[in-house]
Specification:
Blueprint (H helix, E strand, L loop, with lengths): L1 H17 L15 E8 L5 E10 L5 E9 L7 E12 L4 E8 L4 E9 L2 E9 L5 E12 L2 E10 L2 E13 L1
Antiparallel strand pairs: 1-2, 1-10, 2-3, 3-4, 4-5, 5-6, 6-7, 7-8, 8-9, 9-10
């Protein structure tokens, strides 16, 4: 009987995990099927406001992300700013992401996780063509709250922080 229970658990566990989506994307599970809201100020004093929703794709192999943010430089028009997708890359054994915004820009990068922290690493190119290696971090505080940092890192330490605020589950 013990062997039967063990065999049942051995086969059932993988199926229950896979039923929730690609197991390599499980770091996103606490964010799923919810909207997360953040407000704050950038280092230069400009306002920051975002609402981000995460959901599984139909085949549960990718995580979709829809972001609402300010659409203009007067910070009055708020709406859908970008669509993103996260997927497990079997070649690099890492989570890759791609975000396309309403201005036609695409940002691609890698997601790293450390315990309950999710870190997006990517190259940002400004209007002058200057490239900066950026990190956006969602640092778990409690089930309905994450600290959100945007900046640059050197040797796993924050070198410069451009934004620090909190995301709350809406």
């Amino acid at each position: 009987m013990k062997n039967l229970a063990l065999l049942f658990a051995f086969f059932l566990l993988p199926f229950s995990l896979l039923a929730q989506g690609n197991i390599m994307l499980m770091p996103f599970e606490p964010l799923m099927n919810a909207t997360w809201k953040a407000e704050g100020k950038w280092k230069d004093g400009k306002p920051f406001k975002q609402e981000v929703s995460y959901s599984w794709s139909e085949d549960e192999e990718t995580v979709n992300m829809v972001t609402n943010s300010y659409l203009d430089t007067t910070f009055t028009d708020f709406g859908k700013f970008s669509d993103g997708v996260h997927r497990w890359d079997t070649i690099s054994n890492s989570i890759k992401f791609e975000v396309k915004d309403v201005h036609g820009n695409t940002i691609e990068g890698t997601v790293k996780t450390k315990q309950k922290t999710i870190m997006y690493e990517y190259v940002y190119e400004n209007e002058l063509g200057v490239k900066t290696y950026m990190t956006d971090a969602l640092i778990w505080i409690k089930p309905d709250k994450y600290m959100f940092k945007v900046g640059t890192m050197k040797d796993d330490e924050w070198a410069e922080v451009y934004l620090e605020t909190y995301f709350f589950k809406k």
